[in-house]
Design brief:
It is built from eight helices and seven strands. The protein is α/β, with parallel strands linked by helices and 239 residues long. Strand 5 and strand 6 form a beta hairpin. Bound molecules: zinc ion (2 copies).
Length: 239
């Protein structure tokens, strides 16, 4: 799974650079539909991504990518157009399309301003998506938590004792689990809405790579599911 992620991350870096050159002045906002010019640039670059996922992805992803690849550019355009505005991808096509679109979302985010700041956003202040994970960073007196957007990868501060799913603040309803294999990853569960999010605790492991470690700690997702929690937002691998 990590091998696949490394290929995806390289592809995303490269796509970010290419799109930065060819799409220099689209409206700098994430909450809008893609323009025809954007769709054409994006869909013309989708096939190499599908080939990569076919060659390196887990079995289900590889099969899906092979199938999508045979459908052609019109169908890719439709898929990308829908995935761009879908606030929460849950099906496999949508997650794959969002992984492809992520570098462009990041690019537009770097050109746009966030919503006016509030004390705490449960949704991304740039694109309104749910967070994909949390991180804890060292501050003066302990760790401060922030959330990372599942789509445009924006990071914003978020209070530690509050559920990002439903806003629950009662600490008796909010449990944190860890496992010795992943001592620096917290599974933060809410017993009010039965969702969880994983947070990478950089105060315990300053060398952790939040996005990579979130994917690599899939056993924690299985554990959370077995205990009746569902993830606030699935990652690229559908976990
Ligand atoms: Zn975002
Ligand atoms: Zn909750």
């Amino acid at each position: 799974m990590l091998g696949f992620y490394i290929h995806v991350a390289r592809f995303q870096d490269d796509l970010h650079r290419q799109l930065g050159k060819v799409l220099q002045s689209p409206p700098a906002s994430l909450g809008r539909a893609l323009t025809a010019a954007e769709l054409s640039e994006l869909s013309s670059r989708f096939e190499p991504f599908l080939s990569l996922a076919e060659a390196h992805g887990p079995k289900a992803t590889a099969e899906l990518s092979r199938d999508l690849r045979t459908r052609g550019q019109d169908s890719w355009s439709a898929l990308l157009k829908a995935a761009w505005i879908a606030l929460s991808a849950s099906d496999a096509d949508g997650l794959l399309a969002q992984a492809f679109l992520q570098p462009y979302a990041e690019l537009l985010r770097s050109r746009s301003a966030p919503r006016p700041s509030q004390t705490a956003y449960a949704l991304c202040p740039f694109c309104n998506r749910k967070p994909g994970l949390g991180v804890l960073r060292q501050t003066g007196d302990g760790g401060a938590r922030s959330m990372i957007c599942s789509f445009c990868l924006a990071e914003w501060e978020f209070r530690r004792i509050v559920c990002a799913g439903c806003g629950e603040e009662n600490d008796k309803k909010l449990s944190v689990f860890t496992a010795s294999d992943f001592y620096y990853i917290r599974v933060e569960c809410c017993d009010s809405c039965n969702t969880y999010v994983k947070s990478v605790d950089l105060t315990k492991n300053g060398r952790a790579e939040p996005l990579v470690d979130e994917l690599a700690s899939a056993p924690l997702d299985l554990w959370a599911r077995e205990h009746g929690y569902s993830k606030l937002q699935n990652n690229l691998l559908g976990m």
